[in-house]
């Protein structure tokens, strides 16, 4: 996640409709649910990305 946050353009990172951002969500999910389940939750979140129904979405 650190690599993405360092290399992704600010425009790409600021385009997220959700709070927290997908990368922050993934970090929280991995810490809370352990690696496998956390990554599954993160991937589902990314699949929902760029929809107009954003908002607060905690893991």
Question: How does this model look, in words?
Answer:
With 59 residues, this protein is mainly alpha-helical. It has one domain (2-56). The mean pLDDT is 75. Helix 3 (22-33) packs antiparallel against helix 4. The protein starts with a helix and ends with a strand. Helix content is 61%, strand content 7%. The chain is globular, with a radius of gyration of 11 Å. It has helices at residues 2-7, 10-13, 22-33, 35-48; strands at residues 18-19, 55-56. It has 4 helices and 2 strands, in the order H-H-E-H-H-E. It has a two-stranded parallel ribbon.
Which key features would you list for this structure?
59 residues; mainly alpha; two-stranded parallel sheet; 2 strands
Task: Indicate the topology.
Elements: H1 2-7, H2 10-13, E1 18-19, H3 22-33, H4 35-48, E2 55-56
Parallel strand pairs: 1-2
Helix pairs in contact: 3-4
Sequence of secondary-structure elements: HHEHHE
Q: Find the count of extended strands (DSSP E, 2+ residues).
A: 2
Provide a count of the helices: 4
What is the assembly state of the chains in this entry? single chain
> What's the arrangement of strands in the largest beta sheet?
1-2
Total domains: 1
Give the termini separation.
16 Å
Q: If you compute it from the alpha carbons, what radius of gyration comes out, rounded to the nearest whole angstrom?
A: 11 Å
Structural class: mainly alpha
Strand content: 5-15%
The percent range for helix content is: 55-70%
| Average pLDDT number | 75
Q: What characterizes the major β-sheet? A: 2 strands, parallel
Residue runs with pLDDT of under 50 for 5 or more positions: none
Shape: globular
């Amino acid at each position: 996640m650190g690599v993405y946050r360092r290399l992704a353009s600010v425009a790409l990172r600021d385009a997220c409709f959700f709070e927290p951002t997908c990368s922050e969500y993934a970090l929280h999910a991995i810490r809370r649910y352990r690696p496998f389940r956390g990554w599954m939750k993160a991937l589902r979140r990314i699949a929902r990305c760029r929809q107009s129904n954003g908002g607060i979405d905690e893991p």
